[in-house]
Each structure stands twice: as structure tokens, then as C-alpha cells.
Amino acid sequence: MSGTRITDQQVRLYMNKRKHHPQEVAAAKTGISVRTARRIERDATLPSQKPRHSWRTRPDPFAEVWDSEVVPLLRNAPHLMGITVLRKLQDDHPDRYPDSMRRTLERRIRQWRALEGPTQEVFFPQEHQPGVRGLSDFTDMSKLCVTIGGAPFGHRLYHFVLAFSRWEYANVVEGGESFEALTTGLQNALWQAGGCPREHRTDSLSAAFRNLTEQEDFTTRYAALLDHYGMEGTRNNRGLGHEYGAVKNMCCSIKN
């Protein structure tokens, strides 16, 4: 395939096939072109033994406009697509930048974003330990359009998950995300699980947190509930829903 580097294994396989077959047949059996086969016969050095060049093999077609036109566009709108930038260059410089240069421009833009573009948020995988964390969440089930006797049944699910084992519990909630719904669901889950995790995590439930204050502050009733079961209360950082993935992903699987 054009543009794909051959491997050491392909070179060895070709040389072995070449002992018993003509060049064209050996190339076909190896999955390479006849042109590549001729190149191997001229120089049988394995690809891994050949130094890779790091210099440009042709002049940069965007050198004249990169710093003066392309980079300012990217700084003002870092998420611009390569084709959009190319169309702008084509409008400003007719006949200089054909569509065939699109991939070259996109490659340059990727390099710029990696080296000089806006800082990207880094995500680290969550590692859970046995018995450490349980998570509670509510999910709205209205999209399922459940009916009882032909009448719509609006409800939510309270959902509890043990982060390490993925053990889960759910019950139907008629109403909102109230403290009563949280305590009923949590206590039922803990009784069925046969024990309590060290930490109980939620998102910013108003039934558990005083969200109008800047500091971490439990409601009085939620603090008493945690104390009763000997659990530490935590929540994910505000606005960072990905930190709650262990329970959110399983809620989605329930809906589906």
C-alpha cells in the first residue's frame, strides 16, 4: 500500500519466497508491490536497521503564509478545521493552494496544536480499591415513555454503585431528588450489599450539599446520615462530570 512502510517480517518473507518463485509471484505472496520487491533486492537491509530521516524532503508550500496568515487564524480560533483554513488561503491566493495540499496543511495544523496550541485537559484513569467508594446518583427516566394503564408514569431511578466490584442497586423514585429519596435508596442499597463502603460520593445534590456556599458543607441531615453509617462524604468537582463516570456509565446502560 502506498505510503505504508514495510516491516522486517515482510522483507524476510519476501526473501524466503524469492528462493522458489519469480519476483512478481514472490511479491504477491508477500503482499508488496513489484516496485518494492525490486528495492528490497537492491538493498536487503531490514527497515529497522535503516536510519529514519527527520528533514523535509520537499519545500514547505505554506512557508510564506504560515506565520503571517495561518497562525493568526489558529490563535483566534484554535478549533478551525484544516479545510476551512485552506479555503481561506484559496480565496486570498487564487491558484496557489490546490485541494491536493489539504493533507499537508492538516498535518502542519496538528503539529502546531501539539506544540503551540491551547493547553489540553489531561484525564487519568480512575483506579478503585475494594470497599472504598460507593456512588449515588439519580437519573430521569422520562425518555423511556413508561405508561401505567395508558397514563404516563414520570419517575426517576435512584442508583447506587460500588466502584470496585460494579455491584449496583436501583429503585424507582416518584418525585424529585429529595433527601428522603436519597436516604431511602442509600439505606436499601447498603442493607442489600451487606455493608458500607468507606466513602460515599455524589454529585452536587442539594439534598446533601449546601451548594450556595463556597466551601464543602454538608446539610445537617446528610452529615448525620454519614455519621450513622460511618462513611466519609465526598463529591466530584463542580462541572467535571467525567469524575463521576463509574455510576453515570452504568445509568446509561440501564436506560439502554
TrEMBL record:
InterPro entries, alphabetized: Integrase_cat-core
One Gene Ontology term from the biological process aspect of the record? DNA integration
Note the superkingdom of the native organism.
Bacteria
* Domain Integrase catalytic positions: 126-256
What name goes with this protein?
Answer: Integrase catalytic domain-containing protein
Which species expresses this protein natively?
A: Paraburkholderia piptadeniae
